[in-house]
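Sequence design from tokenized structure. All designs in this work follow the same two-part layout: the structure record, then the generated sequence. An example of the structure record is given first.
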């Protein structure tokens, strides 16, 4: 029996398929999307919202759903990594809506080897996280979380041609850590 379990774990690791109780991770995302899709208009609506984010006391009320604002869909890349006690699985559980709006902003410039007069602009990924108490219709927090700027300052011509632009990774791990650290109500 142990060999069967170990064999299944190796198969999952090698094939890259993640299964949780017989359901693929993609299946979980689809189920979440289906559960929250009818309510996206409400989650994204600014109607009746008051902005108390300047008070600087963000919190999580009940469980949360994270919404990717530019894509106007559930932010699975954030929800997946949140602990179950704060992650909503249905509309009825949603006490907090979190808007995740990732974008790029100007970062450091990079020198190109052999072309001292030419610089390549670096871009830093940033995610603006807005926390909304759904019951109170109040924005209780807003912060922008930055990705890490590359420590490389000089690029070869080959790197410039293959990459085209230097953009940091989206700081989704930092977004998750921020949400996990917030007090609960």
């Amino acid at each position: 029996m142990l060999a069967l379990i170990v064999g299944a774990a190796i198969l999952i690791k090698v094939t890259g398929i993640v299964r949780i109780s017989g359901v693929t991770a993609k299946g979980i995302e689809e189920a979440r999307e289906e559960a929250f899709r009818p309510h996206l208009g409400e989650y994204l609506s600014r109607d009746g919202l008051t902005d108390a984010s300047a008070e600087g006391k963000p919190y999580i009320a009940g469980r949360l759903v994270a919404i990717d604002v530019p894509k106007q869909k559930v932010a699975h890349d954030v929800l997946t990594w949140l602990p179950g006690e704060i992650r909503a699985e249905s509309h009825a559980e949603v006490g907090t809506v979190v808007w995740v709006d990732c974008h790029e902003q100007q970062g450091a410039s990079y020198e190109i080897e052999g072309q001292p007069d030419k610089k390549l602009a670096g871009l830093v990924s940033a995610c603006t996280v807005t926390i909304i108490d759904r019951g109170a219709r109040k924005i209780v927090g807003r912060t922008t979380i930055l990705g890490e700027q590359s420590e490389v300052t000089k690029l070869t011509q080959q790197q410039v041609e293959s990459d085209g632009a230097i953009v940091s990774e989206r700081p989704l791990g930092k977004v998750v850590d921020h949400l996990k650290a917030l007090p609960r109500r």
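Helices lie at 2-15, 25-36, 40-44, 76-79, 157-163, 172-181. We note this feature because it recurs in several other targets discussed in the main text.
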